[in-house]
Amino acid sequence: MLEKENIFMINETQLNEDQKTFVQKYFDEQVRPRLVPIMIEEKRKFPYLQNQSIYLAIRLANSKVQDNVCYSLIELPVDTLSRFVVLPQTDTKHHIIMLDDVIRFALADIFSILDYDTFNAYTIKLTRDAEFDINDDITKSFYEKIAKSIKDRQKGQIVRFVYDRTMPKEMLNFFLSKIKIKDEENIISGGRYHNARDFMGFPTLGLKKLCYKPQPQLTHPDFKPNTSIIESVKKKDILLHYPYHSYHYVIELLREAAIDPKVKAIKITLYRLARNSNVINALINAMRNGKSVTVVIELQARFDEAANIQWAKSLTEEGARILGGVPGLKVHAKLLQIVRKEQEKDALYTYISTGNFNESTAKLYSDHGLFTSHVAISKEVKKVFDFLENNYKTFAYKHLLVSPFFMRKKLSKLIKNEIKIAGLGKDAYIYIKLNNLVDREMIDKLYKASAAGVKIKMIIRGICALVPGIPGVSENIEVYSILDKYLEHSRILVFGNDGDEKYFLSSADWMIRNLDNRIEVATPVYDAHIQKELKNFFKVQFSDGQKARIITEKLDNKYRKNNGKLGRQAQVVQYEYLKNQD
Q: Which residue of 97, 176, 228, 275 is most buried, as measured by CB atoms within 10 A?
């Protein structure tokens, strides 16, 4: 594909003379100062290797002296340098070389003072266990325990070791013995390059036609300029589709609540936040204006623990009531509630989302956020906050699906209802959109539904342990995955319910951790217009004939064949649909 556009990825063996001169100069000026080669000796303690970092394992040998072999390690300095180096353009061709290969090119220079003349470099990468245990030491605060665990994680047990499959066996065995990894299931052969996420920084080369066109975020027709967000939500439920709609409405709601004299309190659950969070700024402003602010901040949000500890400290200093969640359960629900005094009563305004309160990722992730003043839903969201404040209190929920207490049971009941409808010879169907589907119990229930004649269509972006198309088991199940410009992140459920469809927006994937070990919330959607929006959203996703891949038992992830009956890219069509709603 790149070659069609005269873009060529080359390695150190494919450079012409001019390119060699350029690479040598780039190495001397930019790369060499940032390299720290480590010589590996049999008797010396093996160096600590960073989690998920790319290393070049170097084999140094002397062609004139048999068995004169030495090993070294070089960590790629991708924290300060791009993984991609653009070479001088020749004619109409663009050439790019990986930083890995720039280092390979200069190995003789790096080790010039040593008595070796043959150098070979092989990529290795290891993954350490990211989980940590919170000890029972009562002399330390929860903050202190989390902070210590973050440091301990860096030295966590190695659970995965990936290496270049062309590495000589004796060299591989040497490194495996040094890092003390024995379980063969954790040793994975791979290719020459790793950490494909670095391709997010692939150079554009000034070729605008190959880049996504700027797509301005849309305004929502129900939120009028210079009018109250709260007053708009009082009139009707409003659904935002991110990243097509602007996230600033959430920030504006918080800012409005901060200065509204009728607002008494704000309650919010926080899991992952933007680096410079406007959400935090709005909450601080609310406290400075005398509002009561309660924040449930998840201090065990993986890889965001340190940031969340800092946010918690900042909010505490301003007077916020900080709740660390529930012992043994992560709080993953995405909830915001505003308490406003109206006619001597407390009116509740609620925002429930499938994604985090993070204005940065809201520009990249496809999520949904529901603004509502629905009394029953809002009262049940209040119950969730009451439980988070007083863990000994449990509540029953008629509208919300709340894990770990009720969500699994209610989802099972909804599936069972579709089986019953199918048994009566009526149309029964379920639409599901999730990031991951791995929970065995829920998968078995979907298999039973399929076998009973329930038509099931799913969009599963990530891991899917369900196998569609098995005769007599899952032949009524279709599963697709869409990978495109935006990360598909929302969780949406639709149950046919004999014509009276039930719609839910959820924070939870169907995994054991989400259904049994986390506080998650799925909200029903009652507004007929919003139901229509979500139904259309599914229709667009199921019709994608460009970026949708078919999930099968073979796990080959082939694109759907667009035979003229399928549509264009779902994300493009969705943007156009919402744009026309203005």
A: 97
